[in-house]
Amino acid sequence: MKRVFSRLFLLTLLLAVSNVYTQDPVDPNPYKVGENLVYEGKYKPFLGIPFTVADLEFSVSSIAESDDLAVKIEARSRGTLIKLFGFKFFQRIESTVDSEKLQAKKTVKRDEQGDDRIRDSEANFDYDSMKVSYTETDPNDPSRPPRRVASVIEYGTQDIVSAVYMLRGMPLEVGKTITLKVSDSGLVYDVPVNVIEREQKDSIYGKVWCWRVEPQIFGEGRFVEQKGSLTIWITDDARRMPVRAKLDTKLGDVDIRLKEIKTVPPPVVESN
């Protein structure tokens, strides 16, 4: 479950007259500097009662003396998961994105699972050599050799964070399949995203029309090599806000809902 959380995350008001609707214009650049999105995740075991397990926060910042953007997600365990099971996790993923070409340039990750397992990693995307180079280290064991992986990439490759934002800037229609090139831990995956239907969902905006999309991340040779499914609801309006996501896994379901939108003064991250 924690591995699914760490990869996720993830991704609408209709103007309707009779049976005809007009889709609001979509901003092709989905990154809004100063926008912070806060989500709450609840886990429901089979035949069990759902309980809160984590908070997730997405944020976008500008980078000093650069046209690039810094996009960060933090996922932190909380509530019943810690109290009843004594398990805690924390993951921070910081993605550097080319604001013009809308492709990932660097991914820095901190992955903590309890106090014993901690991993730091960095992936660098080189579009001259068309390769991504990934290095993972164990700060608890400095003598352990780093894990290194390199893979071939294409222009427009995303990481797990930027892929969520890319969906917000794409035109959607029922029956359409969008395939994203997504790199994680040095490997590169084709991720088909199926647009299933439009439906109304409850959200912090009230009841809104949403696009229901299903990224194909589960299965052999995919991000998560087990049975399961991921569904994301994105508002069908100019905001293109991911208001809800649901993970169905063999261990139970995880329901992730947008609970707060913070607009802060445009932050600036120091360039590396």
CA-based gyration radius = 19 Å
Structural class: mainly beta
Please report the total strand number as a whole number. Answer: 18
Low-confidence stretches: 1-24
Could you give a short account of the major beta sheet?
16 strands, mixed
What is the residue-averaged pLDDT? 84
Helix and strand element order: HEEEEEHEEEEEEHEEEEEEE
**Number of helices, counting only DSSP H or I runs of 4 residues or more:** 3
Terminal CA distance:
33 Å
What is the global morphology?
globular
Strand content: over 45%
Helix coverage percent: under 10%
Question: In words, what does this structure look like?
Answer:
The chain has 272 residues and is mainly beta. It contains 3 helices and 18 strands. The chain has helices spanning 2-7, 80-85, 160-168; strands at 15-17, 20-22, 35-44, 51-63, 69-77, 89-98, 103-113, 117-126, 131-137, 147-152, 158-159, 177-184, 187-203, 206-215, 228-235, 242-249, 252-263, 268-269. The strands form 2 sheets. It has a 16-stranded mixed β-sheet that branches. The chain has a two-stranded antiparallel ribbon with strand order 1-2. Strand 11 (158-159), helix 3 and strand 12 (177-184) form a beta-alpha-beta unit. It is globular, with a radius of gyration of 19 Å. The two termini are 33 Å apart.
